[in-house]
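> forwarded from #structure-qc
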């Protein structure tokens, strides 16, 4: 007879002899495990049947261990043994020791039962017994498992408990802080104090982490938008150490995903060469991971892309719906050319979409499907999308709107009229969007949905009502959501003074509760949108005071962004300027920039240049040198040098107003590399001074600006005594808030700087130049005459 202890040896115990199936497997590297062989072995079926017959005789610990190990051996959740074990465990739930409860919670998560009744009961037990838990592993495992069910009150209790246990646990147990970060990611709550404490422990463990662990941690950081320079630099160094030992498909894939996006060009080429050698040995999911990383690093190795695509092609039957969407997107963005493969992918996407009942899945499949060329859209797809729209959040609705816009543009019949199926979809989208805004009653949930909203549909159909909704909920603005609200207003370029006044008030009252790094987001809309709330000086002063004691703890790139935002607002804290413009800081910034995505890298370099320029012009007493001459020259070479038809029109009019086309220069580069749309010089009698032909810029018929012999700043010959340089700038819609004619901060800063450089600055807003009042040649010329000559000394 097969005894209970033999089953325990087979499934559960690490200390009961040769039958320790899972114990032996977990000791092996991933690539050497033989789980599928065990699962298909006839004696394994016998063991499962015997175990099922003995479930009631198992004690609590054995029962949960049995379920855990059965699932580790890839027994399907629908298998009768797994179901019987879950049912029995549910009956005993309230008497489990906390260690077994946490393991059972993991089992439920493995079976996608995060929202099941037993998980709800586990959440209740955790709430009741939280104070008695003193094991960080048990707590963090439970936190991750119940994350989809926690209330804000329980969330705060869990965070406080986790924070306490971090101080008492063994710091070498890095999975505990990793799970805490995972919990924060799951609940979409970037609680900086806990994140930083977790990061401190993880940073200490980097020398002992493998590529898989580093990849997991960096993925969590990325999804929660937590950037830490020290961790990234340490992780990069550790990954570089692991390059030589990562020669098998499993370990190389983990290394490539983590290191590829922050590697230098030489290392990228080396990684791509290794990937090419291993390509044929990649399994379906490794090929997917490599393809997504190739897209992220903008790989142009056609041979490698072809090989990865070939592996994908052979394994299309393996992928789940979201994986098919991800692989299709990666191949499209890699500009891979294969009509046969994309036709298959499209058919699979459509089939998955027609069968899906999950809104998030239908959204992703639809978005990727819209990226593929298609002359006609299946009616079945339209019906499926229309059916799921009422269940979608605002972000998903926005995704559908962008997909519909692409389909409309690509439909051959669009030239004549918008097909009724698209009109119907857009009407449903509009109705669902407005209904969701009207029913919104929780600001935090609304801000989460609005986090990535952008595009024409949102701006034209929902933005105004969104602002009405946010004002209706403004009493819920608190120190916890002030940064998110401020970022949303900045991103939309929408000046809503009641909301900004409320943000300022809450920030000033609660500045010590707001994390010092969040001061950047808090101040950003006031600087960018050029809005001064009541007590604006106090707001900026207390935020700066909050920052200064922690200045050395800032990530370099974030400190640059903060300093630039303050510069836009004409604010230059001495401590901040001194911290940034020193050799050690700039060296660390350079190192960090190498680990950042290319777009963010370019943005930070541009902001540093603009900050350097602002400090040189507005704070000469700080004696910061101008060290961006070469950078600006390189930027200038990359620009196409064309001007818009409106600017060509203004240039012609200026010639008539000033007495000749050679009295106005076009696209002039000033000292510190501002590009002035037009420059003219007026003598002491306010008469225009003509430029020589050599220094005059020519405009070709296609709007291209052609330089004479002069270069940056070198054509700024001395003006006659008493003469005045005049800079004429055309301000397009980007210089103003979207909902008003209020000028934004950067346009105001530019005006300040040009005046410091000696210009009388004339700004021509687009809404004035294109107004009905200026509809004749004479009206335009009179407008320019008044603008240029009014206010001259």
């Amino acid at each position: 007879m097969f005894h209970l202890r033999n089953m325990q040896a087979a499934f559960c115990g690490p200390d009961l002899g040769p039958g320790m199936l899972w114990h032996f497997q977990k000791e092996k590297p991933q690539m050497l495990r033989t789980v599928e062989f065990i699962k298909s072995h006839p004696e394994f079926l016998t063991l499962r049947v015997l175990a099922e017959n003995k479930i009631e005789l198992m004690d609590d610990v054995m029962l949960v261990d049995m379920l855990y190990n059965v699932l580790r051996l890839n027994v399907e959740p629908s298998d009768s043994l797994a179901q019987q074990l879950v049912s029995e465990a549910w009956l005993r739930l309230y008497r489990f020791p906390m260690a077994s409860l946490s393991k059972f919670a993991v089992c439920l998560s493995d079976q996608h039962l995060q929202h099941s009744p037993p998980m709800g009961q586990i959440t209740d037990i955790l709430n009741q017994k939280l104070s008695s838990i003193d094991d960080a592993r048990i707590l963090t495992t439970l936190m991750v498992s119940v994350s989809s069910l926690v209330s804000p009150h329980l969330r705060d209790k869990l965070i406080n408990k986790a924070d306490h246990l971090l101080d008492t646990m063994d710091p070498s147990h890095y999975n505990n802080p990793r799970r805490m970060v995972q919990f924060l990611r799951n609940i979409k709550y970037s609680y900086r104090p806990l994140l930083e404490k977790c990061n401190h422990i993880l940073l200490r463990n980097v020398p002992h982490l493998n590529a898989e662990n580093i990849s997991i941690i960096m993925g969590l950081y990325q999804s929660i938008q937590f950037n830490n320079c020290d961790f990234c630099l340490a992780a990069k160094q550790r990954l570089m150490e692991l390059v030589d030992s990562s020669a098998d498909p499993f370990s190389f894939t983990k290394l490539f995903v983590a290191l590829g996006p922050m590697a230098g060009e030489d290392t990228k080429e080396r990684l791509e060469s290794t990937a090419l050698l291993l390509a044929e040995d990649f399994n379906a999911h490794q090929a997917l991971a490599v393809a997504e990383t190739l897209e992220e690093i903008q790989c142009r190795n056609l041979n490698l892309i072809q090989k990865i695509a070939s592996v994908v092609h052979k394994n299309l039957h393996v992928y789940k719906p979201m994986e098919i969407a991800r692989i299709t997107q990666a191949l499209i963005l890699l500009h891979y050319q294969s009509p046969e493969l994309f036709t298959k992918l499209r058919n699979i996407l459509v089939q998955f979409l027609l069968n899906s009942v999950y809104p998030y899945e239908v959204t992703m499949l639809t978005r990727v499907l819209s990226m593929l060329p298609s002359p006609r859209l299946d009616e079945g797809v339209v019906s499926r999308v229309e059916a799921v729209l009422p269940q979608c959040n605002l972000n998903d609705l926005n995704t559908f709107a962008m997909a519909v816009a692409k389909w409309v543009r690509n439909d051959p019949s669009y030239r004549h009229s918008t097909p009724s199926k698209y009109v119907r979809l857009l009407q449903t989208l509009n109705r669902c969007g407005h209904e969701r805004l009207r029913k919104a009653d929780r600001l935090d949930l609304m801000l989460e949905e609005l986090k990535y909203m952008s595009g024409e549909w949102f701006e034209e159909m929902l933005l105004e009502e969104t602002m009405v909704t946010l004002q209706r909920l403004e009493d819920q603005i608190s120190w916890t959501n002030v940064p998110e609200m401020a970022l949303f207003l900045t991103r939309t370029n929408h000046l809503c003074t009641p909301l900004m006044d409320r943000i300022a008030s809450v920030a000033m009252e609660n500045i010590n509760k707001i994390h010092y790094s969040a001061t950047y987001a808090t101040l950003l809309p006031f600087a960018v949108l050029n809005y001064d709330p009541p007590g604006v000086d106090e707001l900026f002063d207390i935020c700066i005071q909050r920052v200064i004691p922690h200045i050395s703890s800032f990530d370099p790139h974030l400190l640059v962004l903060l300093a630039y935002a303050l510069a836009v607002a004409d604010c230059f804290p001495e401590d901040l300027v001194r911290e940034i413009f020193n050799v050690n800081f700039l060296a660390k910034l350079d190192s960090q920039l190498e680990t950042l995505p290319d777009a963010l890298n370019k943005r930070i370099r541009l902001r540093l240049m603009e900050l350097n320029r602002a400090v040189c012009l507005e704070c000469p007493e700080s004696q910061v040198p101008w060290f961006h001459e070469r950078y600006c020259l390189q930027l200038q070479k990359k620009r196409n040098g064309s001007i818009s038809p409106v600017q060509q029109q203004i240039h012609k009019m200026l010639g008539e107003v000033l007495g000749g086309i050679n009295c106005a220069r076009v696209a002039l580069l000033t000292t510190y590399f501002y590009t002035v749309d037009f420059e003219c010089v007026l003598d002491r009698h306010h008469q225009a001074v003509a430029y020589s032909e050599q220094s005059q810029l020519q405009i070709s018929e296609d709007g291209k600006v052609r330089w004479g012999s002069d270069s940056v700043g070198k054509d700024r010959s001395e003006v006659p005594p008493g003469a005045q340089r005049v800079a004429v700038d055309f301000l397009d819609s980007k210089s103003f808030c979207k909902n008003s004619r209020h000028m934004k901060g950067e346009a105001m800063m530019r005006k300040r700087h040009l005046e410091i450089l000696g210009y009388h600055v004339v700004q021509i807003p687009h809404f004035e130049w294109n107004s009905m009042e200026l509809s004749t040649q004479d009206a335009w010329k009179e407008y320019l005459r008044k603008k240029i000559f009014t206010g001259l000394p």
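QC bot note: Strands lie at 665-669, 675-682, 698-699, 705-706, 724-731, 759-765. The radius of gyration is 31 Å.
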